[in-house]
Design brief:
signal; alpha+beta; 31% strand; 308 residues; 4-stranded mixed beta sheet; elongated; 60s Ribosomal Protein L30, Chain: A; 2 domains; OmpA-like
């Protein structure tokens, strides 16, 4: 389990650059203290617009802390206010600030980097969200707050993304598990097994957009299709197990559609030869109980489907 003691949280907050001011009160029950040396988080910069939640992808060292505390008659706005003030004191500037339906309700909540129950409880009818950014000598630093409540408890999650060094290519490939293959071996894997994980595509929890840039696996797939004009393929999007199945199936399809669009619009693949579908969290590669496992599960696979 990922539950941590309060002493661990407070010790971590003494590290240089940590958001020491955002510590849980003594009456709090700490439910999570997660750290990643390098990862990415989708930071909402607006509310749900009817189709998607606009986000920016923040990369770096990630810290997630969650706790619950006595409500004592407070509203979610009153829980958020002192935390917001502390972030502003630390030099962070607001990016997006919203509440429940004004954020986009269900669609917004599951587009954020919010931990699952029971680590973080979110009442879809009563929550508040804040995303912030400050500039440092090493690059931008981001912090987000998700605040909600039950009848007697207030719930808080603080997520922070600080600048960090990028991993090696070998680390990136290995993070996708045994099913991932180097781009040069993609054609061989498709010929032999009929499927492969597109190893260099990374998605944060709740995010579907591909970052700008080139993807060697997609270039290799486009080349494979050019050399095999009788083949068609299907892209299958997958998610981790954060959130409900229906939302994750929709999210996984959007991931596959984003990859399909890149192949068609950027690499010239015929739209008739590539389809997209989503499996949600129904086909994990690894355990969803760890961040490493969840990262492996957030992926897009390619499957050879038919001969024309």
């Amino acid at each position: 389990m990922r539950f941590r003691g309060l002493a661990v949280i407070l010790a971590a907050m003494l590290a240089p650059g940590a958001l020491a001011a955002l510590s849980p009160p003594e009456s709090a029950g700490v439910t999570a203290d997660e750290r990643e040396a390098l990862g990415s988080v989708a930071i909402p910069v607006g509310g749900f617009d009817g189709a998607q939640v606009p986000v920016i992808e923040a990369e770096g060292a990630i810290t997630r802390r969650a706790w619950h505390e006595p409500l004592e008659g407070r509203t979610t706005m009153q829980i958020l206010a002192p935390l917001r003030a502390r972030l502003l004191e630390e030099g962070f500037l607001p990016i997006h600030d919203c509440a429940a339906d004004g954020c986009g309700g269900f669609d917004f909540r599951f587009a954020t980097d919010t931990l699952p129950e029971p680590l973080m409880h979110v009442d879809l009818g009563d929550f508040r969200f804040l995303s912030t950014r400050r500039l440092t000598g090493a690059g931008p630093e981001y912090a987000t707050l998700m605040v909600s409540r039950s009848g007697t408890r207030g719930f808080v999650q603080v997520t922070r993304v600080s600048p960090a060094a990028a991993p090696s290519v070998a680390d990136t490939l290995s993070s996708k598990g045994e099913d991932a293959v180097p781009e040069g071996a993609l054609a061989e894997r498709l010929d032999r097994e009929g499927r492969a994980v597109l190893a260099d595509l990374d998605f944060a929890t709740g995010a579907a957009a591909l970052s700008e840039g080139e993807f060697a696996s997609l270039a290799a797939l486009a080349q494979y299709l050019a050399e095999n004009p009788g083949l068609s393929v299907m892209l299958i999007g997958h998610t981790d197990a954060v959130g409900a199945l229906e939302g994750n199936i929709a999210l996984s399809r959007r991931r596959a559609e984003a990859v399909r669009s890149h192949l068609i619009e950027r690499l010239g693949v015929s739209a008739t030869r590539v389809t997209a579908a989503g499996a949600g969290f129904l086909a994990p590669l690894a355990s969803n109980r760890t961040e490493e496992g969840r990262m492996q599960n957030r992926r897009v696979e390619v499957i050879v489907t038919a001969l024309d």
